[in-house]
Amino acid sequence: MSLDRMHDMSKFRIFIVNDEPLLRFALKQLVASEDDLEICGESERCKGTVNAILSCKPDIILLELSYRDGCGLKLIRRLRFRKVTSPVLVFSIRDEGVHAERALRAGANGYISKYEDCHKIVAGIRRVIRGELCVSEEVMRNLVTGVVGITSLAGKSTQLCRLSDREIQVLTLIGHGEPPRSIGAALGITAKTVDAHRTNIKKKLGLADAAKLLRYAIRFVDDEPMTSAANQMPLSRSFAGKGVHLPADNHSELLTQPSTST
């Protein structure tokens, strides 16, 4: 047993991976209000995070899906490849109907929305520490449906689950108005490969032509809450009434991604 853990056997240690300074600050205050939880480390980027976690040996890792320097799903896969056994709870603003199952397939142990109340976030952390799966009832139903092979009649989220991670990336860039050449450059693939992904996306989503694909992609991007205003909403909803005081002058540090859709 490590000396760090021996100093207080009653506390479970949390490592936070999130590139929003204000959110990390709020999470640390939230955790500090709980007698059995503590923060043992934090990171704002993917680079160097795996080694930091290997050194820290937390009881749980709390991470986002999107970073300035990488992808949360790839980070989860790297953690599992490096034999990190600490459970991972994804704490994200993104649509769980689209992303929760992907996170679980990558090696996560749960998925919880930033929109949830504080007590639900803390309860989710404890559930994952106990070795339980932490997902919403809707996601659990979808998982069970997939296991038993029942055809789901759900809408867009179920359709999008048919897409691979790469196809989701291509769809997102299409929604932002990027042409195939730019998409290829962004993802490190050829324009011909992008066209193949576009064809597969249309087939999987039942879209007849490029115009319908573009309209669908734009709606998909619009539904993903990636603007600055949307990123600030969970802070006020999740941490209000829990004795968490946010610094008033830190809003400029939030990661902002202006919408490019029209």
Question: How would you summarize this macromolecular structure in one to three sentences?
Answer:
By secondary structure, the protein is an alpha/beta fold. The protein has helices spanning 3-6, 21-32, 49-56, 72-81, 96-106, 118-129, 137-148, 156-160, 165-175, 180-187, 191-205, 210-223, 228-239, and strands spanning 12-17, 37-43, 60-63, 66-67, 70-71, 88-92, 110-113.
Structure, explained:
This protein has 13 helices and 7 strands. By secondary structure, the chain is of the alpha/beta class. Strands 2-1-3-6-7 form a 5-stranded parallel β-sheet, with helices on both faces. A two-stranded antiparallel sheet has the order 4-5. The radius of gyration is 19 Å and the shape is elongated. The model is unreliable at 1-7, 147-155 and 225-262 (pLDDT under 50).
- Report on the biggest sheet: 5 strands, parallel
**If you average the pLDDT, what whole number results?**
77
Number of alpha- plus pi-helical segments: 13
Low-confidence stretches: 1-7, 147-155, 225-262
Adjacency order of strands in the biggest sheet: 2-1-3-6-7
Q: How would you classify the helix and strand content by structural class?
A: alpha/beta
**Spatial extent as radius of gyration:** 19 Å
* Anisotropy-based shape: elongated
Give the termini distance in whole angstroms.
Answer: 56 Å
What is the N-to-C succession of helices and strands? Answer: HEHEHEEEHEHEHHHHHHHH
Q: Which strand-content bin applies to the residues?
A: 5-15%
User: What is the tally of beta strands?
Assistant: 7
Q: In percent, how helical is the residue content?
A: 40-55%
